[in-house]
Amino acid sequence: MKNKDKPPELQPFFDKNIAGDVVPSIGISMPRIDAYAKVTGRERYAADYYGFDMIWAGVKRAGIPHARLKSVNTQAAENLPGVIAVLTHKNISGSNRQGVIRKDQPVLVDDKVRHCGDAVALVLAEDKETLAKAIKLTSADFEPLPGVFTTETALEENAPLVHEDHPGGNVLLKASLEIGSVQSAKEHCDVLVEACFETPLVEHAYLETEAGWAQLKEDGKLEIVASTQTPFRDRMEVADALGLEPERIRMIAPYAGGAFGGKDGVTVQSLLGLAALHANGRPVKMWWSREESFIAGTKRHAARMYYRLGAKADGSLHSLDTRLYFDTGPYDHLGGVVITLALEHSGGPYRIPNVSFKGWAVYTNNPIGGAFRGFGVAQVTAAMEQMMDMLAEKLAMDPLKLRLKNAVRKGDKNCVGVTLTHSTGLVECLEAVARHPLWTERAAWKSKAGPFKRRGAGIVALMHASGYGPVVPDVANAKVELTAEGKIKVYCGVVDMGQGNAATNLQIAGSILCQNVDRIELILPDTDRTLPSGSASASRCTYTFGNALIGACETLKLRILQRAADLLMVDDCDETALIPGAVRHLPTGREIPLHRLATFMNESERTATQRFRAPTAKEIPPVGNEIRLHGFPHTLFSYGAHLVRVEVNELTGVVDVKRYLSVSDCGKIINPHVYEQQIQGAIAQGIGYALSEEVQVNEGKVLTADLATFIIPAASDVPEIESQPVEIYEPSGPYGLKGVGEIATNGPLPAIANAVADACGVRIFRSPLTPSRVLRALRERLSEGGVH
Amino acid sequence: MRTFEYLKPASVNKALALLDLYGDQAKLIAGGTDVMVQWKKRIISPQVLISLRNLAELSFIKFGGGLEIGAGTTHRALELSPEIREHFPVIHDAVSNLGSVQVRNSGTIGGNICNAAPSADTAPPLLVLDTNVRIASTKGERTVAIRDFFRGPSRTVLQTGELVTLFSIPAPLPRTGMAYSKHTRRKAMDLPIVGVAVLLSFEEDLKTCRKAAIALGVAAPTPMRAANAEAFLAGKPVDKTTLLEAGKIASEEASPRTTIRGSAWYRKEIIRVLVRRTGLICMERAKGAARS
Ligand SMILES: Cc1cc2nc3c(=O)[nH]c(=O)nc-3n(C[C@H](O)[C@H](O)[C@H](O)COP(=O)(O)OP(=O)(O)OC[C@H]3O[C@@H](n4cnc5c(N)ncnc54)[C@H](O)[C@@H]3O)c2cc1C
């Protein structure tokens, strides 16, 4: 194990040519290949397309949360000069249904409106202004229906149904798991802690709102370029919804301008496909406004979570029972998978012999709950890690020692019954926090708080699964090519939505094939050119694709060296080595340039592919098949421990985050620079989740549909973040790596809540911890005459 | 296309003539940081935009004991002015955390005041400074005290054909401290939940309050002066206790609303806290000014 005292130095990088000379190595901080074009504005995102003869497409949104659709009035809009078409569900010949597991979301509403953001009509116009007018002129006749806007009311006996045809009523999915017996275990617990936590609906707020463009080509092929995390899955969804053969559709995924789960699934794709089918071969662009993105895009599920945790007097956890209610809005999207992952993580990274977990993903007429970095784990971690602190307080035990005592280690069964056979570095993470001055010297720091200020420190332990679980194959297919010009092409199957995995692919290929950056070209995901490799999600991108890519590069390398050995007429390709642009025979120093070598190889010889499937848990815990299908359980986890120091203003309730320490076990690191960005970004996002971000909704209507009312942190709200990796080698990972994309975002909310409780003795069960909530809690404590 | 004509007169007089010509069909635009947002949201749809951008006549900071600020002066210019920083720090406080640097480079003090948002950051400072607003039209000029300038959210005393040319601020009394505090939900790029400006002038003992001015933003339909709190402080020794009391009184005078940004009870709490906190800064500043 190697601990670094200081975060890696990030080198400023301005000149593309400097990096071009570099032959990548594994483990060094390389400037990202995409950085230069992005910061200079040259990168072309899906939203940046302005083609010749381009048409704008836009959507008439329902604006009403629950209603039967009687008719859509398109005439007035159609009569407007400059309007090309106004399309409704009648123009769709496919299933008109989208969804990853349960296909329940219409492209354009046919029978019923189920939330305000539902698409009622699709308008095509010559320019944006005409489009806006035409959308205004399009109207619909609705028969309003009573809606359901909380999970409680949705689960009532005679609640209005969001989907009349769903056998579970308003329960999209109920997941449950019992191990041991919490009932009888409770009697053997010396202490019990109970609480209910509520976490808010949250918007991803990516820079690039949902966008793309599409064109029907002369050969009949429908080309869709979209800001998406899932091009291959999108193709199947669009094909099914619009009634086309998947081969007719080509999905192209440029770098996304942020996604965080919000583009894990179809956003503009089917609408664009439909528009292109009615555009006489002209390119059609769609780009949701910020407000539209707030209203129609998916969100992090709002959750209500009941916890009861029991332990022995010595602090060993003995029983946990949880009930999780997740508001999934009107459509499955990925709600079933989210509740399943939440369930799996609801007991945290601890050994607990008796558990009873129940989770409901509940249909409502609120905005759509879906994938969001953290994927259900952010919510349950917020609950469980606060429970741990509450338990520690009741036991009068140090919260860090309590965690260490119960932390899972390699070889243990975690609390959902899975034996941890992969690297398990939680203890190392917690020990690093325990040693850190921010922890050991906290008492002195706390005592120096100024007037009306209270200081506190909070810690959390984290785990986050990677990959799809046991049933849906977590597979990637990598392809690399030695081009006829002697360069290397890497066909990336997994989208880079900003997290930097494309740059990592380049680093891997460059390192194995010993080619400098300028000699490598990345082909971004494209269903016609790259191979299906699954979604950019689930902390899996570099783990799964990286493993495949290493295999493909090694195959190509061997082929190149063997071919070179043949041409150089030497017996053993062991004597040859790849160098930038050439192969060298080491004993004689003779070289063959790669572009010459390439002329002796045909295309199939110059191309290598490799498939990789991520390992799955071999245990079969006591859950139904349905839950396994939704991804339960996992075998591979990343771990972490966070520490935060906060200062609470007693007069205003403002929580000021002063310092942050993140220690993570995400395996070995390929590029410290990119790793650091993932940790820092996730923590910044988590701080927003903890303190200010909340999509406020009234009767299904979003009240905070812009960035002036939905408050994400500014740079000055994010404190100095120290990030330490505990680099434990994970044998199944590429170069020993595990996923780092999500884990850190789960930490800030419970860490800050614990720190606030440490600072002023109040616990706020409903997040975000806005100043007014904190102030109210402080006042209530005072009026109860509580401790100071 | 939804369009407008964009006219860029070369002088204030030409701008006034255009205002007369187009009347209610026209809208003045200075930095455009409010106007363009409202245009995009379709809150306004003027046929003509008359631009005051870069009119040298409107962009100046004249210091000579008192202060004159041209309506077209950008927040950034105010922020970077050493005179304002030293002698009118209450303005510096307000403009240095208004929006972002980009917004401050574009947005003007005239636009901020004429837009008449209850949250306008420069309104409370101008209120405690007893600013006079100079208004021009083709018919001539008039001057209105800033406390009479606001008529409601987005409403002012300006008539069709009028524009604001400058803000005239009398020299403060000796031994004066002034400050502005803004309570926000994040540390940058946010409108105030509450904004409080305080100006305190002291007797020679540097304790007794000779004059107090307290102004509140987002506390009522318009930026307002807290007259009762001011009256309470006048003639009294200023310390933590009296400032706390003044905060309470100001909070009672205020009638904030509950909005998506914050609830009324919380705003009232913050007014109490900020009056006291800002008053303490004024004391420090008055002492500092007396020393130098
Ligand atoms: C991202 C962002 C952040 C912001 N943050 C803040 C903030 O923190 N605090 C804050 O107070 N404001 C903020 N604002 C609002 C805005 O920037 C300010 O109100 C700014 O001062 C407006 O000035 P302007 O020159 O851009 O006005 P404009 O938009 O040009 O005009 C505003 C109004 O004033 C009128 N007007 C302009 N000049 C004159 C004149 N000389 N005579 C008569 N009428 C005139 C216009 O007709 C219009 O009605 C923000 C705006 C944005 C876009």
Please provide a written account of the structure.
The complex is a heterodimer of chains A (788) and B (292). With 788 residues, chain A is of the alpha+beta class. Chain A folds into three domains: 16-31 and 475-613, Aldehyde oxidase/xanthine dehydrogenase, molybdopterin binding domain (Aldehyde Oxidoreductase, domain 4); 47-145 and 210-287, Aldehyde Oxidoreductase, domain 3; 299-469 and 619-783, 2-Layer Sandwich (Aldehyde Oxidoreductase, domain 4), CATH 3.30.365.10. Chain A is built from 23 helices and 32 strands. In chain A, the strands form nine sheets. Chain A has a seven-stranded mixed β-sheet, with helices on both faces. In chain A, strand 22 (488-491), helix 16 and strand 23 form a beta-alpha-beta unit. Chain A is globular. Chain A starts with 15 loop residues before the first helix and ends in a 5-residue tail after the last helix. In chain B, helix 9 packs antiparallel against helix 10 and helix 10 packs across helix 11 (264-291). Chain B is of the alpha+beta class and 292 residues long. In chain B, strands 4-5-10-6-7 form a five-stranded antiparallel β-sheet. The radius of gyration of chain B is 19 Å and the shape is globular. The relative contact order of chain B is 0.11. Chain B folds into three domains: 5-51, Uridine Diphospho-n-acetylenolpyruvylglucosamine Reductase, domain 2 (2-Layer Sandwich), CATH 3.30.43.10; 56-169, Uridine Diphospho-n-acetylenolpyruvylglucosamine Reductase, domain 3; 176-291, CO dehydrogenase flavoprotein, C-terminal domain (Enolase-like, domain 1), CATH 3.30.390. Chain B has helices at residues 12-22, 35-40, 75-80, 82-87, 89-96, 101-106, 109-115, 123-128, 227-233, 240-253, 264-291, and strands at residues 5-7, 26-29, 48-51, 61-64, 66-70, 132-137, 140-145, 150-152, 155-156, 163-169, 176-183, 194-202, 209-217, 224-225. Chains A and B meet through helix 4 and helix 23 of A and helix 11 of B.
